[in-house]
Design a protein that fits this description.
Its EC number is 3.2.1.23. Keywords: Glycosidase, Hydrolase, Metal-binding, Zinc. It holds the Pfam family Glyco_hydro_42M. This is Beta-galactosidase. Belongs to the glycosyl hydrolase 42 family. This protein has 17 helices and 27 strands. Among the domains are: about 60 residues, no CATH class; about 200 residues, Rossmann fold (3-Layer(aba) Sandwich); about 60 residues, Sandwich (Immunoglobulin-like). The strands form four sheets. Strands 10, 11, 12, 13, 14, 15, 16, 17, 18, 19 and 20 form an eleven-stranded mixed sheet that branches. Helix content is about 30%, strand content about 20%. Helix 10 packs across helix 14. By secondary structure, it is an alpha/beta fold. The radius of gyration is 26 Å and the shape is globular.
Length: about 675
């Protein structure tokens, strides 16, 4: 079941609301809040995210009286609600009575009670008590007509992204038995003859941390196979926590959709493995700066791609500031509206806040909120939020369920992220997300409708498949990418692709391993230089760019050279190649290329497939499309700081203002302004 399947008020428009914690304030404040919510167009509230201590004061005592009163008030004032399972933070009594439930960190230190996300995911006590609470909640509230969705846990991950306690060691060995079946197979996968690491008994295996296989930090390990498996195991362990609670809910509520809030490009958890278990994807959008529109576009696309293009929710964003950073700038005028519509442009059917009213105390008391401590509704930020709510009301349900009609795909792979960053001998300054973002940004700036997919997803229907730094090769992805080229499509890959198998062992042949026949090249050497040192990239037509950090020395074996290095002993050797495959082609970029080099790379590719957007030449003007039963909607989102003039690509009506726009008309778009054009 999805949000758009519902027939109640929550399905009439883009869902608008956020995280509400009335238990933190006196009862008389609730009525003030409800009046403000009505003024802002807020119709859905997320309740109970961190209420475990209130709902269960002791192991054998439950008290739902306060939550009953909160839900009664929310519904009486005309709103629906999302209900959390309240298990994102342990209550003090649980850690005190069962100290084994708290985590051991990467340094091997046993943590005491405090903070949040503080449980060991493999604690038998936690695995017993957390679903028990979820089940009680579902039994009591699961059939409530105003319940929109279940919010299970909260931002899974926590400190260090995992736990390294004895319970985790026991569970890890069980996980390894299920994965490998025998010690012989495990020893082979981990290349355990290296450094006398051959295991003769399962109990000899311990979690890899600073006390065992690691030095300097999480990315420096003697045995990548062990560390990579532990990353997979810990992601699976937290997924099992989610599934424990979801199963308890389903025992009482078989239909209300369930989710948990992801965190975008979050390294510890393989969200692609999690996604099939969520009824819809949701995530928390807290960009690290105020010029992060390209990064947000990638992350929205990644979240949408987790369920093959289905709409997602923004479960949290801040109306004003994020209070967890060293410097916390406020969102400038117009940015809240712009970024909210950007999320909708990329597939969001819900835009929710953390938080609805500022907490009176503790570490988030200055975090942004719809209402400040005084509860004022005459502030700039509240007026902007209310205006956005009015726009969502005006647009209604026209956009709900609409999808992105993409013919280009970019591959994002958690296993390649982990493997490339825990490996010695490469360049530790080369971060996998930065590589992926560079390729996404080049396509985004060209106005390409783009899906972000996994190595397991179907490639049929895509004219262009881009796989930056696909370091670790799983399944038959090399063969499926070749099929894209053979039927007339284009495939693009970058340096460090095709180096290792699923166990992080090097392919015993020329790089790029299984991809070598597709790209028609082999890698002879791989150079690595410090940040700031670059090599020029020059095309035959004289266009130049640059590359940094990693530089592969290619030997063409069928591929044609499109661009060469300009400097060092490998000046004149190919850095960009193109290989004809069937009726298509495969391009290989042998270095970490800059924006200019990538723009030049994609220009002929996008032209060949007719993928260039209508406003590709307008800097910081984002173009995106959603198409569904309500029509085809073109989003123009101006992230620039100066007005821009463009020629309208199509005729239609701007659903935000009601203004008629004709194809060929000159449009002057103000900084941070948005047009949502329902095309004729």
């Amino acid at each position: 079941m999805t949000l758009t399947d519902r027939t109640d008020a929550a399905a009439r428009k883009i869902l608008y609301g956020g995280d509400y914690n009335p238990e933190q304030w006196p009862r008389e404040v609730w009525d003030e809040d409800a009046a403000a919510f009505a003024e802002a167009g807020i119709e859905t509230l997320t309740l109970g995210v961190f209420d475990w201590a209130q709902l269960q004061p002791s192991e054998h005592e439950f008290d739902f009286s306060q939550l009953d009163a909160i839900i009664e008030h929310v519904v009486a004032t005309g709103r629906s609600f999302v209900l959390a399972t309240a298990t994102g933070a342990l209550p003090p009594w649980l850690a005190h009575q069962h100290p084994e439930v708290t985590r051991v960190d990467f340094q091997g230190r046993k943590h005491r009670y405090g903070q949040r996300h503080n449980h060991c995911p493999n604690s038998p006590v936690f695995r017993r008590l957390s679903p028990a609470l979820a089940g009680r909640l579902a039994e009591r509230y699961g059939n409530h007509p105003q319940l929109v969705a279940w919010h299970i846990g909260n931002e899974y991950g926590g400190f260090d992204g995992g736990c390294w306690c004895d319970n985790c060691g026991i569970a890890y060995r069980v996980w390894l038995r299920e994965r490998y079946g025998s010690l012989d197979e495990l020893n082979r996968a981990w290349n355990a003859t290296f450094w006398s690491h051959t295991y003769g008994d399962w109990d000899e295996i311990v979690p890899p941390n600073i006390l065992s296989e690691h030095w300097r930090g999480p990315n420096h390990t003697a045995f990548q196979g062990n560390t990579l498996d532990y990353l997979r195991f810990m992601s699976d362990s937290m997924l099992r926590n989610y599934l424990d609670e979801k199963a308890a809910i389903r025992a009482h509520d078989a239909t209300t959709p369930a989710t948990t809030n992801f965190m975008g490009m979050f390294r510890p958890l393989d969200y692609q493995r999690w996604a099939e278990h969520l009824d819809f994807v949701s995530w928390d959008n807290y960009p690290p700066g105020d010029r992060e529109h390209a990064r947000m576009a990638l992350t929205h696309d990644l979240m949408r791609g987790l369920k093959q293009g289905d709409p997602f929710w923004v479960m949290e964003q801040t109306p004003t500031i994020t209070a967890s950073r060293d410097v916390n700038p406020v969102k400038r005028p117009g940015v809240l509206r712009l970024w909210s519509w950007q999320s909708v442009a990329h597939g969001a059917d819900a835009v929710l806040y953390f938080q609805m009213r500022q907490s009176p105390g503790a570490c988030e008391k200055y975090h942004g909120a719809l209402l400040d401590h005084a509860g004022r509704t005459d502030t700039r930020s509240f007026r902007e939020a209310a205006a956005l709510g009015a726009e969502f009301e005006r647009v209604g349900d026209a956009l709900l369920g609409a999808r992105t009609p993409a013919r280009a795909a970019l591959v994002f792979d958690w296993n390649s992220w982990w493997a490339s960053e825990i490996t010695d001998g490469l360049n530790r300054h080369l971060a996998y997300p930065a590589v992926v973002q560079a390729y996404h940004r080049a396509l985004w700036q060209a106005g390409v409708d783009l899906d972000v997919i996994s190595v397991h997803d179907d490639l049929d229907g895509y004219d262009l498949v881009v796989a930056p730094q696909l370091h670790l090769v799983q399944n038959d992805v090399a063969e499926r990418m070749r099929a894209v080229a053979e039927r007339g499509g284009t495939v693009v890959a970058s340096a460090l692709t095709g180096r290792v198998d699923a166990s992080d062992n090097a392919f015993l042949g020329d790089a790029p391993g299984p991809f070598a026949p597709l790209f028609g090249v082999r890698v002879e050497e791989t150079d690595s230089l410090p940040p700031g040192e670059v090599n020029g990239v020059r095309w035959a037509d004289g266009v130049e760019g640059s590359a940094s950090l990693v530089f592969e020395l290619l030997v063409p074996e069928g591929a044609e050279t499109e661009a060469v290095y300009e400097h060092d002993f490998y000046a004149g050797r190919p850095v960009v190649t193109r290989n004809a495959v069937g009726s298509g082609e495969a391009w290989y970029v042998a270095a970490h290329a800059d924006d200019a080099a990538l723009a030049r790379l994609f220009a002929p590719i996008l032209e060949r497939h007719g993928l260039v957007g209508p406003y590709a030449g307008a800097h910081d003007l984002e173009f995106a499309v959603r198409q569904g039963t309500g029509g085809r909607f073109a989003f123009l989102l101006h992230h620039g700081l100066e007005p821009v003039e463009v020629i309208a690509h199509a005729s239609g009506v701007d659903v935000l203002t009601g203004a008629r726009i004709e194809q060929g008309q000159t449009l002057t778009i103000a900084p941070r302004d948005v047009i949502v054009l329902r095309e004729d």
